[in-house]
Amino acid sequence: MANIVSIVGRPNVGKSTLFNRLIEQRKAIMDNQSGVTRDRHYGYGEWTNHYFTVIDTGGYVVGSEDIFEGAIRDQVELAIEESTVVLFMVDTMSGLTELDKEFANVLRRYNKPVFLVANKAETTERYQSAAEFYELGIGDAIYPISSQTGFGTGDLLDEVVKHFETVGIENPEEGIPRIAIVGRPNVGKSSFLNVLTGTERSIVTNIAGTTRDAIHTPYKAFGKEYILIDTAGIRRKSRVKEDIEFYSTIRSVKAMEESDVCIIMLDAEKGLEGQDMTLIGQADKAKKGIVLMINKWDLVEKDSKTADQMKKEMLERLAPMNYMPVIFASVLEKQRIFQVMEKAMEVYENKSRRITTSRLNEVMQEEITKYPPPAHRGKHIKIKYMIQLPTPSPTFVFFCNHPKYIKEPYMRYLENRMREHFDFTGAPITLFFREK
Ligand code: GDP
Ligand code: GDP
Fold this sequence. Notes:
Keywords: GTP-binding, Nucleotide-binding, Repeat, Ribosome biogenesis. This protein is an alpha/beta fold. The chain folds into 3 domains: 4-163, Rossmann fold; 178-351, 3-Layer(aba) Sandwich (Rossmann fold); 357-435, K homology (KH) domain (GMP Synthetase, Chain A, domain 3, 2-Layer Sandwich), CATH 3.30.300.20. 35% of the residues lie in helices and 21% in strands. It is built from 13 helices and 17 strands. The chain has helices spanning 15-23, 25-34, 70-82, 98-108, 124-129, 153-160, 189-197, 241-257, 274-285, 306-318, 337-351, 357-370, 408-421; strands at 4-8, 42-47, 50-56, 85-91, 114-119, 142-144, 178-183, 204-205, 215-221, 224-230, 235-236, 261-267, 289-295, 326-328, 383-388, 395-400, 430-435. The strands form 4 sheets. It has a 6-stranded mixed sheet with strand order 2-3-1-4-5-6, sandwiched between helices. Strands 9-10-7-12-13-14 form a 6-stranded mixed sheet, with helices on both faces. A 3-stranded mixed sheet has the order 15-16-17. Strand 12, helix 9 (274-285) and strand 13 form a beta-alpha-beta unit. Mean pLDDT is 82; it is low at 25-40, 60-68, 200-213 and 233-237.
């Protein structure tokens, strides 16, 4: 049985900051560096060998500070019902508010262990002021913490895990590649999924404005496990073309967000269009592995050179985002569809590739010596060494004397050399430069 810990409380108390800290510290730190704020509501955490799922209700409580609307309340209550333990977060910086009291009233109706967590308590003054929250009459104690610095979170977790009945389960999807199938309407996503999974899926929803969650389907082929993520079968009934495009885009982004690798499907007859470029750009930005699948190849009049030519043109247009494999396929004629899946697996491997520090430095120092970073206003720029970070997509930190003078073209140079030496096909590479 899974242990579920939900974090509830009014907006801006620091729920997502704690969430990020609980799910995976490294990832949270990385995201800060790149200025990315993640929009995820579920994650997996571990404390003293106890595993748990964390729900951040922050994403649900949007909008106004003083309205605790019905729909929002429903979402939060759903999370509470699911939970083994609830962390009720308040803010020592702003002090007790009316909305805190409303949350307390909701929580009182459930027979769940509630921990009253007084956040932002990194100063002595705020630490002491946490006592004012006793007025809420919730929980047995107050846990002053700082989500930002991590202060007090260990003591809190020590108590939280005592409420778990089991040690829990590790991230159930850990290590299993999650592959999303995305693309514009009518490129053949549903047909592709039907062939892969052998079932007909066509769920029509009438709910206006819904962006239903992507469907995760465990799938086995070539003795390997995947999780296929798609939104293909979900169609919103609408006669308006723009509307369909819009919802399709939102759904694609959602599926992409939850994946490790995305198969971006294009229509061979139409070629690479603006919206496809946008989708590819989004996948690159989100640090996802990418496979380009050019579907409906059966409809294209071709000779032996057509595929090579088309591929070359596409990759030229995509530069510098041209590191992905391109496969010409036909779902209708079942041509190369399993090759697409094999490529997706390869990209997953490439994306998870780890290069040892010694090998990395050996290879890259030689390239740097061959073509050193250009001097800036007479300042000599020296890259001293580099490391790979233990992140889900290849990320490297270069330590140097003047990181801010390393310009875009030189970064490209380093990335290209890295791609020559190590197989990162389909995987976006991130480079950071730090002073040393
Ligand atoms: P949420 O709306 O409850 O999810 O809150 P966020 O996690 O987005 O945090 C709201 C603001 O409070 C952000 O500006 C955070 O940087 C800040 N914050 C979060 N935790 C702490 C903390 O422990 N100390 C301080 N000083 N600020 C914090
Ligand atoms: P989705 O909107 O991306 O899910 O696209 P569908 O799977 O519904 O496919 C849209 C249309 O394209 C359907 O009429 C399919 O039969 C057709 N289609 C899908 N794949 C192929 C293909 O490889 N070749 C041809 N000729 N048609 C295809």
